[in-house]
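FW: tagging you since you asked about this chain on Friday. Here's the raw sequence from the shared folder, copied in full. Didn't touch anything.
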Amino acid sequence: MAFSRAPLRRFNHSSDCTCKAGRYGNEAAGGATESRAFKRKSSTVRRKTELSASMHQKLQEFQDEVTTERHLLEEELNDVTNELNKLHAKEKKAEKLVKRLEQEIKSQALELAQMEVKLKGFVK
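HL: got it, structure written out here
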């Protein structure tokens, strides 16, 4: 039996090769592409890190501002509470004074009524 020879097909590297160089271009170009991709990813990570640090800094500043404002409001609340307590104490004193004066007026009115009775007794 004789072997038949099929005509040899000419090898076309760019379409027939499934190696890395055939899929991505030559190895130098593939390395450059990978390097650019790495640089893009690295740059993206760096920007995200910087953004995160910036956001963290802004958050810290906001928290400090809120804490400062809270302390000021607490001081103001304490001052107002102290003033309210003083006013309440004055109100209690005023109420006692009013009661004492009312008692004194009643007492004087009774005394005046008794004097009027005596005067009427003398005048008759």
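FW: The chain has one domain: 16-123.
HL: agreed, and Residues 27-123 form the longest helix (97 residues).
FW: great, closing this out.
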